[in-house]
């Protein structure tokens, strides 16, 4: 008998590339502001605006776009031109329409797992954008459920498992963010596998003391997941 019945995957930077698109756009945003100012002040101000605006806009490209506009107006003391603001909006549109780059070994691995487990996606962010990414990734056919939440915390995971009649001990979450995919899941008595991605947004970073004593697994690559899941077999 298998102990784990449901495997949930994070989407951004677990199934496909996401953070590098933000990093690239932020670089272009800095170039756009070069006639006015340079330096790390832009990064700091933008990050502060993003965090301040999370409460109002939630996660995702649209909030990021508005935060870039707000930062540009603030840092140029209102001197930014209409056409420069248009360029920022275009940068955001390019992000939303950016081709989906599914990460290596993802499709092969979920194909292997689909017959033995119920597979789902749990992602946070903008509903429209995330639904579009799942559709364009071609991976949608493998998942029986897709949950798009505004925040990934203990309460949202509890809501998801209750709503879907899942037992916490039979549930495992796979993701690249310790803060969003691992810690809250372990805290509700479920299992979690961390697959680090090479870049992590500052907001998703956690202090070492926050992960001390939390039991989760770490894998270098998603292709190692089926083997790890076999360790959950109950004889
Ligand atoms: Mg992620």
UniProtKB/TrEMBL annotation:
Molecular function via GO: hydrolase activity
SUPFAM superfamilies: HAD-like
Protein keywords: Hydrolase
Pfam families on file: Hydrolase (PF00702)
UniProt cross-references to InterPro entries, sorted A to Z: HAD-like_sf, HAD_sf, PGP-like_dom2, S-2-haloacid_dehalogenase
Gene3D superfamilies documented for this protein: HAD superfamily/HAD-like, Putative phosphatase, domain 2
UniProt-listed PANTHER family: HAD FAMILY HYDROLASE, HYDROLASE, HALOACID DELAHOGENASE-RELATED
Protein's recorded name: HAD family hydrolase
């Amino acid at each position: 008998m298998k102990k784990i019945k449901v495997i949930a995957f994070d989407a951004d930077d677990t199934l496909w590339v996401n953070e590098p698109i933000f990093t690239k756009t932020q670089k272009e945003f800095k170039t756009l502001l070069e006639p006015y100012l340079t330096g790390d002040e832009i990064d700091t101000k933008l990050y502060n605006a993003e965090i301040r605006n999370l409460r109002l806009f939630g996660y995702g490209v649209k909030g990021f776009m508005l935060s870039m506009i707000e930062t540009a107006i603030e840092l140029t003391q209102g001197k930014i031109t209409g056409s420069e603001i248009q360029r920022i909006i275009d940068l955001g549109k390019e992000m939303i329409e950016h081709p989906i780059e599914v990460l290596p070994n993802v499709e092969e691995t979920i194909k292997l797992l689909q017959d033995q487990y119920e597979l789902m996606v749990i992602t946070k962010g903008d509903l429209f954008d995330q639904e579009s990414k799942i559709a364009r990734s071609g991976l949608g056919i493998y998942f029986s459920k897709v949950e798009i939440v505004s925040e990934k915390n203990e309460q949202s995971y509890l809501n998801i498992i209750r709503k879907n009649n899942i037992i916490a001990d039979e549930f495992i979450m796979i993701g690249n963010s310790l803060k969003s995919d691992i810690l809250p899941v372990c805290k509700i008595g479920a299992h979690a596998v961390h697959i680090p991605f090479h870049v992590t947004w500052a907001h998703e970073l956690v202090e070492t003391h926050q992960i001390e004593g939390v039991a989760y697994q770490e894998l270098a690559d998603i292709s190692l997941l089926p083997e790890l899941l076999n360790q959950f077999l109950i004889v």
